[in-house]
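Chapter review. Work through the record for Excinuclease before attempting the end-of-chapter questions.
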Amino acid sequence: MLKKILLAAALTSVTVVANAKDEAHYFDFNQAVESAIAAGALDGSVKFYLAGTKSGGTVLQKDLISNKKTNGFAKTAENACDWALRSALIQFEKTAKAQGANAVTNIVSFYKRNEYKNTNKYECYKGTAVAAVTIKGDIVKF
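Structure tokens for Excinuclease:
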């Protein structure tokens, strides 16, 4: 009987964690970029611009998407989301440099293909165990 009770308790706790709803969070994009450069994760040779903040140049690749997740367990939403965004920006930087570009413009949040535009903030979703950031942008050479 004790085994059945323990099994039921374990299954209930797993179900609660698995069903924990992702919550939307919004953080300062430029602050996250500056932090990534200061930490050496980005080298600063590629500039990042949210939609509505900079345009022009020659678009080399339109609508590049990066979807990054990180372990969010026992982390604040801000720390976990910063880490996920940093990973997405690293991917954009590598792609831009490989194509001879020096910027990524028209960046929007694109979680589950839902576009969120803001000239200051990016969107991140965090649940109990995972934080996720999806961004979309254009690779540009100025």
